[in-house]
Design brief:
homotetramer, alpha/beta, nine-stranded mixed beta sheet, 14 strands, about 20% strand
Amino acid sequence: MGMVGGGSDAFIGAIHRLAALMDNQIELVCGCFSSDPDISLSSGRSYFLPENRIYKTYREMFEKETRLPAGERMDFISIVTPNVVHFDPARMALENGFHVVIDKPITFTLEEALELKNLIKKTGLTLALTHTYSGYPAVKEARERVQRGDFGKIRRIYAEYPQGWLSSKLEDTGNPQASWRTDPKRSGKAGSMGDIGTHAFHLTEYISGLKATELCAELNVFVPGRLLDDDGAALVRFNNGARGVIMATQVAAGEENAIKIRIYGDKGGLEWTQAEPNTLWLKWTDRPVEMVRTGHPYMGPAAKHNTRTPAGHPEGYLEAFANIYRNFSLTVRARLDGQEPLPLWLDFPTVDDGIRGMQFIDAVVKAGYADAPKWVKF
Amino acid sequence: MGMVGGGSDAFIGAIHRLAALMDNQIELVCGCFSSDPDISLSSGRSYFLPENRIYKTYREMFEKETRLPAGERMDFISIVTPNVVHFDPARMALENGFHVVIDKPITFTLEEALELKNLIKKTGLTLALTHTYSGYPAVKEARERVQRGDFGKIRRIYAEYPQGWLSSKLEDTGNPQASWRTDPKRSGKAGSMGDIGTHAFHLTEYISGLKATELCAELNVFVPGRLLDDDGAALVRFNNGARGVIMATQVAAGEENAIKIRIYGDKGGLEWTQAEPNTLWLKWTDRPVEMVRTGHPYMGPAAKHNTRTPAGHPEGYLEAFANIYRNFSLTVRARLDGQEPLPLWLDFPTVDDGIRGMQFIDAVVKAGYADAPKWVKF
Amino acid sequence: MGMVGGGSDAFIGAIHRLAALMDNQIELVCGCFSSDPDISLSSGRSYFLPENRIYKTYREMFEKETRLPAGERMDFISIVTPNVVHFDPARMALENGFHVVIDKPITFTLEEALELKNLIKKTGLTLALTHTYSGYPAVKEARERVQRGDFGKIRRIYAEYPQGWLSSKLEDTGNPQASWRTDPKRSGKAGSMGDIGTHAFHLTEYISGLKATELCAELNVFVPGRLLDDDGAALVRFNNGARGVIMATQVAAGEENAIKIRIYGDKGGLEWTQAEPNTLWLKWTDRPVEMVRTGHPYMGPAAKHNTRTPAGHPEGYLEAFANIYRNFSLTVRARLDGQEPLPLWLDFPTVDDGIRGMQFIDAVVKAGYADAPKWVKF
Amino acid sequence: MGMVGGGSDAFIGAIHRLAALMDNQIELVCGCFSSDPDISLSSGRSYFLPENRIYKTYREMFEKETRLPAGERMDFISIVTPNVVHFDPARMALENGFHVVIDKPITFTLEEALELKNLIKKTGLTLALTHTYSGYPAVKEARERVQRGDFGKIRRIYAEYPQGWLSSKLEDTGNPQASWRTDPKRSGKAGSMGDIGTHAFHLTEYISGLKATELCAELNVFVPGRLLDDDGAALVRFNNGARGVIMATQVAAGEENAIKIRIYGDKGGLEWTQAEPNTLWLKWTDRPVEMVRTGHPYMGPAAKHNTRTPAGHPEGYLEAFANIYRNFSLTVRARLDGQEPLPLWLDFPTVDDGIRGMQFIDAVVKAGYADAPKWVKF
């Protein structure tokens, strides 16, 4: 694995490394860790890399890595830069024969996402998008149970993602996370909806197996002087007639990272919340609520494949993240070995999920600021 | 207290009696407990009433009670019939000098509610509307803390009320609760939004002290053959610029009665859910979440006045209900004695809350079925 | 109902009245509400009693009530005084033909409790002991499920009752509750173990259907100058070989009233905690934990009989208390009518539970201060 | 890092690798992964080790590694074998100049533990004991707050560790975890008390900073035919006069791994449970309960140093485990570099905690089967 971004001053880069390395399947071999060459160098050193594999630009990285012998050069890159710097390194990676892991939202614009899709089609390479929350085993269990019909026909979906960390104008205090996320030039056309609304939206389609077809939304900018939405809510229609509400906010003062989803069919419902990620609640019309927990023999194959500890030994965010890396690396390894990956390994978000995310962003922004509310198809 | 409705076959009538009687401040002295005179009679007997105070019609009740001497006749009536039979007994009560407790929604139409308001103005009598959930002491504490500014300027409100009991066509099985609630001729123009959406809406205004000004909504009928909404969601705008989402559904299969509200200002937020009614969560941007609990000396005067047990001795739905009756009866007693009720006693929902509820119903129905979504003012 | 104790300055008396009156089955007709005649009088007036039914002493009450005609005089008395004043009014009531409700622990000494048992045998009268926590419907459901064998052979019981209100020397501040409870002359030979340990102990036998046979304990006095235990823990052996731990403390600073019980058999286990009284957790070795909730059709007959609201409308401490009064009054009424009470009505704590409580106190005190620990049979 | 044990058929070995590798500070370079050379070989290969670093015996490993050049040979070993095979490889490692990570309980007997202590004293090498639960940041926060006096003088400690996985005779089904843990020849003189009771005991001393001085206990064997305790409870006295209860059971059918600790002083108390590991509850006599959460700026230095994700991104068991490895490796690296480790790095369990654990086992076994109960000093 090589990295683009993820210097020692960056939050999400450290998360990616932890997630990639924990299973002893992936090695960090090179990287361009910052647009500032000094930071890239010092970061790379602190990751125990030899200096000749620490690059000043990602362009240089692709050039030099391509020339290394097959067993030695990186197999894939992980892109953990602000949204505006997603597309170019991804494109170069694919054009140079490297697989790609990329943070969400996949690109700065929908057009870029579609172009990546074309490149993947052309090259046959593999791309994983780190929608972390669908990496949780309990979420995979939810999906399995919904899609095999345990809850009957799905009618109602509530997905919410309240955060509070942008309740004040944090971007003016030098906080780098806040700074680029609230800047339309680096983040894109959406703020909260791009940063976290896409996660909530992804869960609705991932678990339900449905497709959203149109939405009506209101986006808000609560903190004065901010240029992008820091809050919003959308009414969503799904292709089977189900109805959803997607709520995302970064000004719910005092909330941490409380992504939660509830789905109801005509026979029962489910609830999952990231604050208690190893638990899945099943609700029934005629019998007691069940508390399904990861690590038990009664769990389905997807949950089991994505669990590392026995019941009662909580797993968390890093393990969910690591599930994406592990499934991606199992898939890439199989393909490098000329074999067909197992279906369980292919269970990670791809460019198609990235495109759905960009379509959601486009739709929610179009609907969210309209003079009169309207249903926007997507 | 005399009752209209509340025969031994009715759910909500029993609740009203428990709530009214527990504090030893109110006595059940008469009633017309059913439109079926036999049920009225047998019900009245089972409540230990003398036969001459068990009436065949509420008309008869008003006639005969009016003629009784002041110390003997009922002071007020409690109306616990289906919505379509709210207005007429309420009107007659007011016209005959009796105070009124009435179940929500206050009337069948907004016009009736406005007429009740006129009658109350004219007669100076007292009307209490049983929006039970604002009777909880923790909700009153929430209100006190929001309105004194603990959370700063309010920005975001989420109110939800998921139930699952109407997930199937229960009204076809002879269930009387389901039967009238899903019948537009007895329930009014809204189903879930009238029955439970009004409760959620009431909490938003009660706690925040704000007024909703317009909403955009979608109402749904999920169970085939049903005539009224059994589900819906609304985006709501408040008069200070705050934004709300109100969700109410009776087809969230497996949910009980999970009304919940969250309110966020620029300094912090709060969360209250009826499933754990003695707890109020306070959330802060810079310090730990606080779990405020009823019965503690640190609670404010409204919470204290409406709590009967020390901390750790849970109170529930009946006590919340009883708070409305107790405050109403303290108010009526003071007025009967020619005294000014204490402000704490006046803290029960009135005809004005009833009117707001009917306006909410009108607006959400108007918005909820529109061809194109729109903002409906109310 | 007549009352002994329960003046307007007393906590538990108010609870008894709420519990007795809410179901419209019991009327407060007389009482001696305080050893101070003025307080008794003013209390009685505030309860709307005629002055001739407000008594100066309980002796006077028994004398005068006995002379009233049958339909008019009280049917039973409720004794809500400090422990030292339990036995005498109970004895006089039984000797004068009145049924008795009495707060726990039943008496000041075991000998008194045994004498009450003799009197009950002799008179055929009914006595209810207000071990409130076994009045909760979820506790009754637990009992039903344990005793029909759902969890297999019971092995392990944990019962705990942590409170924090006596963490400091509250008795020196004039708090009347603290004052008599920490005074061996009014409370008896045990402090925390008598006041709350007996509740925890009662739950173990009530739910499991087992009998404790011996215990080994340590009692502690943590607050300097206090004369009775404010904390303790006991290892307990049951008659089927099961083992228990009973923990009770009133110096767990910050705890409210957190009584909780867990019972495990060879097939599964259960957990109930009063902080969330409408929920019973069922735990299994081979399938998900189940959350059983009061008010659902799937509940057993005992839970149903003792529930007043539908699922999702929380009941609390007062309703649990009221269940004792209701079952007691149904039983007394049946017996007054010369009929056999239904088994469901007989489900309230009796003099036998009172004796078990006194035996527990004797044993735990004997074991708890021993120089060397020992197993004390009881 | 070299490993003793941890073949691909072992549970805890995989956990150790995940924990050791995730921070990119430790590399697995060699190992003897099983007493079966074939399993050792296939395991080592699956961990991407060269064949010459996969050993048949740990004796061979020490011989060969010692001869490798300094930069190449392993720096420390991780011992993850059944208890009976702890001492010998630990002794050999220390005698050959390798640091040691060892699973708990540290050895088979107390004598062995004391001998390891001598060896460490003599060699100056570093030993870490994997009492995972004190690796959680919320536990470290608890410790910091207790020891700086937030809760006043500590009076009461409850530590419990209920598991249910040994409710039936799992050791007869070929389950390797159950098999050695219930075998006195491989596990030692205690079953549940050694396996999990030591964890609970460790938390009491780690958080409180107190020393237990004596205990009175009962140990039970509930599953017929089992040779070691599968359940037990102990009353414990601490050196400041505080009293504790330690409960450990592996037959609480339906429980997962529910270790929990509560500590109360005269000013307040705390609660932590591994099922919700990122939360620490603070309880106060005069103000609301506080929910302290990892990842917030308000946390103390120890919690911060041991947290990898921002608030709301749950960490779990593997991260707690990794904290031990990270602090150990930071300490070892500093010592290898001739520097003094920071105090924060030294915060991992050592041989002294191992000795305390063995003393606890000795005491609880001595007390737990006595004919008459007694206080056993330790």
